[in-house]
Amino acid sequence: MGRKVSIVGIQNSPTKYDLEKNLKDAFGLLDEALGLYKYVDIAVFPEYFSFVPESKDTPIIEEYNEEIKKMLAMRARAYDTYIIGGTVANKQEDGNIYNTSLVFDRNGDIIGSYDKIHLFDVLDAKGEEQESYQITRGDNLLTFDTDFGRVGVMVCYDVRFPEMARTYALKGVEYLMVPAAFFSPRFDHWQDLIKAAALQNGMYVMGVNIFGKVCDTLNMCGRSLIADPWGIPVATAPDKPSFIQAYVDSDYPSQIRDALGTFHNRVPSVYDIK
After folding, report:
1. Range of the structural domain that residue 90 is part of
2. Where is the CN hydrolase domain (predicted)?
3. pLDDT tens for residues 183-218?
4. Which of 11, 37, 99, 207 is deepest in the core (most CB within 10 A)?
5. Structural domain count of the chain
């Protein structure tokens, strides 16, 4: 038995444009969770936890970013926890906007950021969904080391690409965090993808989703969950704004990987997935 690691996911229900209410509700859930447990090692918000862009015509609201960063940093320091701040719209000097997840350490310092790589550009029943109308894709993975193990980050649609989770596993990631805004008709996909990533790669995977009808056309399924390295859910969220928490064994990922042999029995010479 290794260290008991306490992980928390926040499942809030943001609404279009009402940033003040969204932030009040989201941080209220975080404060409740961080105050309830004796300690929390890492807490994760969902994708677009402060606002949800509805279409290519919805203006990206990114002027609140500095205030959001301050709120996240303050709580990371106050509660001595790592925080992954869901995602925020991150406008760069060249005018490109990225869907960015910021990581804060226990001192409240930003120690890394991840720009969503796989953008949701697909045809759907209503015509099309083109995330790239607003967002520029990232091109780098993010891992960071903590006092309880190595953590990786992906965002929402990224979880549909198994190469990405496997790459993280090969980089030594033991905890994969997935902030998301996953649509309600696909809740079965959402939960199965989280469990599959955990099982296939022998690591903890926490999927943290927003919940409810967040704007006129988007309904999110919630169903946040933590899956252990066997792919078994150890915490699931109810169908309402809430949070999930679990104490997990830091030694379990390495034990599962050793027991199943799915890493040292790999045959990379025959794989061609480019």
Report:
1. 4-264
2. 5-250
3. 887 778 999 999 999 999 999 999 999 998 877 777
4. 207
5. 1
